[in-house]
Design brief:
Helix Hairpins; elongated; three-stranded antiparallel beta sheet; endoplasmic reticulum; alpha+beta; 10 strands; about 10% strand; five-stranded mixed beta sheet
Length: about 750
């Protein structure tokens, strides 16, 4: 373009500005994100977990890795080098003189703006004597002084300076490029072109292509798409999949194939060590010729998985490959659960597919995840999840005296009986076992059933969308163990006064009352409690959630009500008294007044219930909006697992199922953020036919064996309301003109009606 000039940096000064900015944009964010400041925090965290998880494999591996790892040190060294380069460049920039600055002849002559011609000439003579080259002065400075004197004394030069900022008149526009001039030098043109082509035509396409090729091979959960297709094929082919078949399908995943995953390794020692493990394991369907179960990688992965479940000792090379297989398995099983859910949804949408997976197949996937994390076979006792427990010790637990078959049974024992039963452990081992049991989770599950976006949220009609709100509260077994001790320490005088009798006789196991259901109240007594018992102050102060549960007709296991014989007699007496009072009302006027009062109170209660339902609906909407905006961390609580090679967090599966028909009612929700309390909404369509249905709300752990929960869910489905054929239609005008025309026509019709009335 005319009047423009492009100048490269010959001295390299402006290039330092560019280079300093570029290095700063890299070093400052990298320091914030990559500086290993959490190293001490991680060591403190591991130290706090040592008492409980000190014997776990993942804990020992992580502790060893944190002590031997040099990666944090290398990160610090690289960041310090970057900061040293950045500070050096900043120092170089600070020493560069400003060459390009605004030209001001008054500043050159050291005068104030607006000085007279006489002052300018006098100052010029003084500075000329000082900087004249013949007098030993600076030649460049003398030239600047002469130019400034000419600009202020010559009329044309002064006019050019005032208009264009330069005594010589308008100059061509120049653009500086912060690159050294040697880059565009003809001698270096081939080298620069070679570097440019290598960077942008070779390296960049290869990096982008490699990333794209790898990304399209994986799903959103970092599972190979080929593996997902493999799972879908076999779950469709085998709807009712037993545990052995499931283990074969799991180990056939392409994550264990060296051709698809570089982490999978084929070792020369596999030809000798794998057959030896096969002989020790026994029958594992080695001769099965169905692909891909007969492939070497699948057979090796199956052998390593089974040896892990049997807690067999293996060599170092095999142990490394075994840890890789075990570490990948929980994520693969979660993908298998997702595949089973997708096939079930397809079956429901298409009116039923013959090969849709059964509920047992999906639950076997969840059970296998527990087995892999704990390193136990399905038939083994759940007590073997605890440290220092061996097979020969189980005979002390399952004896007729104690009958301890689960961890809940072990905790529910009295301390004296527990110590006597575990006398094969020393004092230190016993304290360690109790600390581990105390860290185990105990979940409190509350269920609320309703139909949202409906006038009557408690009335479930055929085909309506039912919302089951499940509130999960996570506590440790140690908290319930301490509560049980407090209950056992109640004074006998206090229990006698309250009519409770001997606490040892009336005390029920905490675990049975919480997890295994509740004592059902007879129907006749339920009627007396709900209808004929007068409202007391305690019932008026009852929380809204309890009222909702009573309206739904379902009582959760944690809200179960048990009554003593005396209380039941009192309730029946109050009910009979109320019946006698109703029978003694002979006056019809009194009956009418009483019925009017009763109808008014019922209307007030209905209005209050509507307000409560509206508030509950608004709260649920707000909770859902907050859940969409918030992203909770999936770090919950570390799982106690003796043989799992990686730190595993406590996660759960929550779903509704029909145990009788062996079908899923709602898809399993993977609860990954249950740290203390979590609220989950499960939605499903109500059955198309009216009637009573019995479902189950199931909570399964993906890490612990024997801690699953099942609660009944009774569903009473009514017939859907039919809309009348001749219901009024509302004509809504689309524009303002139509609205005005409609108002005019309504006014004319009203005037005609008035005239007819007058006639």
């Amino acid at each position: 373009m005319a009047g423009q000039q492009f100048q490269y940096d010959d001295s390299g000064n402006t290039f330092f500005y560019f280079l300093t900015s570029f290095v700063g944009l890299i070093v400052i964010p990298a320091t914030y994100y990559l500086w290993p400041r959490d190293q001490n925090a991680e060591q403190l965290r591991l130290k706090s977990l040592r008492k409980v998880h000190g014997r776990c494999l993942w804990y020992r591996l992580k502790l060893m890795k944190s002590q031997q790892s040099v990666i944090p040190t290398l990160k610090k060294i690289a960041l310090l080098i970057g900061w040293a380069v950045f500070l050096f460049l900043a120092y170089k920039v600070s020493k560069i003189d400003r060459e390009y600055q605004e030209y001001n002849p008054y500043e050159v002559l050291e005068l104030q703006p607006g000085a007279s011609i006489a002052e300018i000439k006098r100052q010029y003579r003084l500075l000329s004597l000082k900087f004249h080259p013949d007098k030993g002065g600076d030649e460049k400075m003398f030239m600047r002084i002469s130019k400034a004197h000419e600009a202020l004394t010559d009329e044309e030069s002064r006019k050019n300076w005032e208009m264009y900022g330069n005594p010589d008149g308008p100059q061509a526009t120049s653009f500086g490029i912060a690159l050294p001039a040697w880059i565009v030098d003809q001698k270096n043109s081939m080298l620069v072109l070679l570097v440019y082509g290598l960077a942008f035509m070779v390296i960049l396409p290869v990096v982008v292509g490699t990333w794209w090729y790898r990304s399209i091979r994986y799903s959103g959960d970092q599972i190979l798409i080929n593996t997902t297709q493999l799972f879908m094929h076999f779950m469709y082919k085998t709807p009712n999949m037993n545990m052995k078949r499931l283990e074969m399908v799991l180990t056939a995943a392409f994550e264990f194939d060296p051709r698809s995953n570089k982490e999978a390794i084929i070792r020369p020692t596999d030809n000798t060590e794998v057959p030896q493990l096969i002989r020790e394991l026994g029958n594992i369907n080695v001769k099965k010729k169905e692909p891909p179960f007969c492939y070497p990688y699948s057979l090796k992965a199956r052998v390593l998985l089974l040896s892990h479940l049997n807690r067999m000792e293996v060599s170092e090379n095999v142990e490394e490959d075994q840890r890789f297989v075990v570490r990948k398995s929980p994520a693969l099983l979660q993908e298998m659960v997702n595949v089973g859910c997708q096939l079930t949804m397809m079956a429901n949408s298409r009116g039923g597919i013959q090969h849709a997976p059964r509920l047992a197949s999906i639950e076997n996937c969840m059970k296998l995840s527990q087995m892999i994390v704990q390193g136990l076979q399905e038939s083994k006792s759940h007590l073997l999840q605890l440290p220092h427990f061996e097979e020969e010790h189980l005979r002390y637990c399952v004896s007729k005296k104690y009958k301890v078959r689960s961890i809940q049974d072990l905790v529910s024992l009295k301390d004296a009986d527990r110590r006597n039963m575990l006398r094969f452990l020393g004092e230190e081992k016993y304290e360690e076992v109790m600390a581990v049991i105390g860290s185990f989770p105990h979940i409190n599950m509350d269920i609320k059933l309703q139909v949202l976006d409906d006038e009557d949220s408690n009335n479930i009609t055929a085909g309506s969308i039912v919302t089951v709100t499940v509130t999960l509260t996570r506590r440790t077994m140690m908290e319930f163990f301490e509560k049980e001790q407090e209950h056992t320490c109640v004074p006998e005088d206090q229990t006698a006064e309250e009519g409770q009798g001997d606490p040892s006789k009336n005390k029920s196991k905490v675990w049975q009352s919480k997890n295994k259901g509740t004592k059902k109240v007879p129907k006749s007594k339920k009627k007396k409690l709900t209808k004929k018992k007068p409202p007391s102050q305690q019932q008026q102060q009852q929380p809204k959630q309890d009222k909702q549960k009573q309206l739904n007709g379902t009582v959760s296991a944690n809200d179960a009500v048990t009554y003593t014989k005396e209380e039941e007699d009192d309730v029946s007496e109050k009910g009979s008294d109320s019946e006698d009072l109703d029978a003694n009302k002979d006056s019809p006027s009194e009956r009418e007044d009483e019925s009017d009062k009763q109808s008014e109170t019922e209307n007030d209660e209905i209005g209050g219930d509507d307000e409560e339902e509206w508030e509950a609906l608004q709260q649920s909407i707000q909770r859902r909006e907050r859940a969409l905006l918030e992203t909770k961390s999936k770090i919950t609580h570390p799982v106690y697992s003796l043989y799992f090679p990686e730190e595993k967090q406590e996660w759960w599966w929550l779903y509704i199922a029909d145990r009788k028909e062996q079908t899923l009612i709602s898809m399993p929700y993977h609860v990954c953020t249950l740290k203390e309390t979590e609220e989950v909404e499960l939605k499903f369509p109500a059955p198309s036919k009216p009637g009573n249905y019995q479902y189950s709300v199931i909570l399964k752990s993906d890490s612990y064996m024997g801690l699953d929960m099942i609660k009944p869910l009774k569903l009473e489905v009514h017939e859907a309301k039919h809309m009348p054929d001749n219901h009024p239609q509302w004509d809504i005008p689309e524009t303002e003109e139509e609205e005005e025309d409609q108002e005019d026509s309504d006014g004319i019709e009203e005037s005609e009606d008035e005239e007819e009335d007058n006639d």
